[in-house]
Amino acid sequence: ITHNIFVLLPAADRRSYAISLWETTRILVRFLPNLKAQDVMRVRTDLVLLLIMNGNDYLPKLRGSSGFNKLFHSYLRLIKTWLQNNEKPPSKPKGKSTQQQQKLQPFLVHPHDLTFNLPFAIAYFRKLAQVAPDNLNKDSDGRSGGKRGPKTLTVKQTPLSNLYSMVDGG
């Protein structure tokens, strides 16, 4: 990831905003006082993912995101909470390797191997689901999700199924 990544976000009145990933990262460091210097790359990688989720010429934006502001502010609130809760380094739990312990950190993507940090990603998508428009939680008949069919079977919603439904809807 280089310093030269800029994104144009269209706004009202035919205006667009050019966002520099590098400058945004520098500003974020001030908003996240508990962020360690070595974790700045993780935040930058997460910002790239958030910008991709906002859509571009080739990919539609994530359904239910209602724009970059919602994606970004949900991410900021969640990472601040996780960083505040993890101020003290946890003692290494028995039976967990260093790699498993690293997976519990508050970032969406590990920048070295570009894999998802599932505990944080699940928490993030749950937070997005909470702020998603109400019409995303309705089935094809216009009823609220959760009950289906004549026997009123309850359908279990998982974070992965929520992510799939958001991406599927474009």
What would your notes on this structure say?
The protein is mainly alpha-helical. The chain has one domain. Strands 1-2 form a two-stranded antiparallel sheet. The two termini are 27 Å apart. About 5% of the residues have low confidence.
Shape: globular
Number of helices: 6
Strand content range: 5-15%
Global Rg: 18 Å
What structural keywords apply?
two-stranded antiparallel sheet, two-stranded antiparallel ribbon, single chain, 170 residues, 6 helices, mainly alpha, 4 strands
What's the topology here?
Layout (H helix, E strand, L loop, with lengths): L5 E5 L5 E5 H11 L8 H14 L14 H18 L12 H5 L15 H13 L16 E2 L4 E2 L4 H10 L2
Antiparallel strand pairs: 1-2, 3-4
Concise summary:
With 170 residues, the protein is mainly α.
